[in-house]
Design brief:
By secondary structure, the protein is of the alpha/beta class. It contains eleven helices and eleven strands. It has two domains: 54 residues; 128 residues, TIM Barrel. The protein has a four-stranded parallel beta sheet with strand order 5-6-7-8. The chain has a three-stranded antiparallel beta sheet with strand order 9-10-11, with no helix packed on it. Helix 1 crosses helix 3, helix 2 packs across helix 3 and helix 9 crosses helix 10. The chain is globular and about 45 Å long. The protein starts with 6 loop residues before the first helix and ends in a 5-residue tail after the last strand.
Length: 258
């Protein structure tokens, strides 16, 4: 069953509105949290009733027949020439609302990171570890939407590299507080305080494929904070309390905002 406020038909209408004919049903199935088995068929049936023209089952890059025309689904998205010239790599929004092909697409695209990773199969987990992909977990989104939190413990125990980020956006995670996300990761995602802080710093750098940030060392940028706390663990122990005493950016101490 589709579990979206307003019912499945309304959800298909909303998600397909403004999307060109030929959007792949599997992608809508993932967005709608339709179970993998029969998910595409369910979405296609609803779409047919609503007059929404969707493509059926096909692998990326394979031709699909529709109304006598041969269409081709796009392969994995990659940055354009301008983005590549500036060092940008692919990042994939994957498996946030339900199981789907996002992790496989991320691996095929050579992405640095798969973001969200909330609903993972054993095959997805194997792909993340072997690709390798950084699993960037965004607990603010689950806090805002009341979805289950990603299983960070399962990822870490399997040997995956985990990053933490805020996913700051006005729709589902309107927070810019990394300390809040660290607290959620420790409380609800079974990470230790050391793992959560590493994921929020060095893990984020791995997700960007950068070696000059996310840690302190020779050759790295001198970006750091000084906490008004006896331990980094207070980031999780005192959620919501401002603990930053001082900030340095590129080696220069920043003046407090007034």
């Amino acid at each position: 069953m589709v579990v979206v406020h307003g019912g499945p038909a309304l959800a298909v209408q909303r998600l397909a509105a403004g999307v060109p004919d030929g959007v792949h049903a599997a992608l809508l199935a993932e967005r709608l949290q339709v179970p993998v088995d029969g998910g595409q068929a369910h979405v296609l049936a609803l779409a047919a009733q609503l007059g929404v023209d969707l493509l059926g089952t096909a692998e990326a890059g394979q031709p699909v027949q529709r109304r006598g025309q041969r269409l081709r689904l796009p392969g994995p998205a990659r940055p354009g020439p301008a983005g590549r010239a500036r060092g940008l790599g692919a990042r994939i929004h994957a498996n946030q609302l339900g199981p789907g092909p996002g992790i496989r697409v991320a691996a095929q695209a050579g992405a640095a990171s798969a973001d969200h990773c909330t609903y993972l199969t054993d095959a997805d987990l194997d792909t993340i570890v072997s690709a390798p992909l950084v699993a960037t977990l965004l607990p603010g989104a689950e806090f805002g939407t009341r979805h289950p939190y990603p299983d960070a413990r399962r990822l870490l125990d399997a040997g995956a590299t985990v990053a933490l980020a805020t996913d700051c956006n006005p729709g589902s995670s309107f927070t810019s507080s990394m300390a809040f996300c660290i607290a959620l990761a420790v409380r609800d995602m079974r990470m230790t305080t050391q793992e959560a802080v590493w994921a929020a710093t060095a893990g984020g750098a791995r997700a960007l494929r950068r070696t000059d940030v996310g840690h302190l060392g020779v050759g790295a940028r001198a970006d750091l904070i000084l906490l008004d706390a006896p331990s980094h663990a207070y980031l999780a122990y005192r959620p919501g309390v401002p603990l930053v005493h001082a900030v340095w950016q590129s080696g220069l101490r920043q003046q407090p905002r007034t």
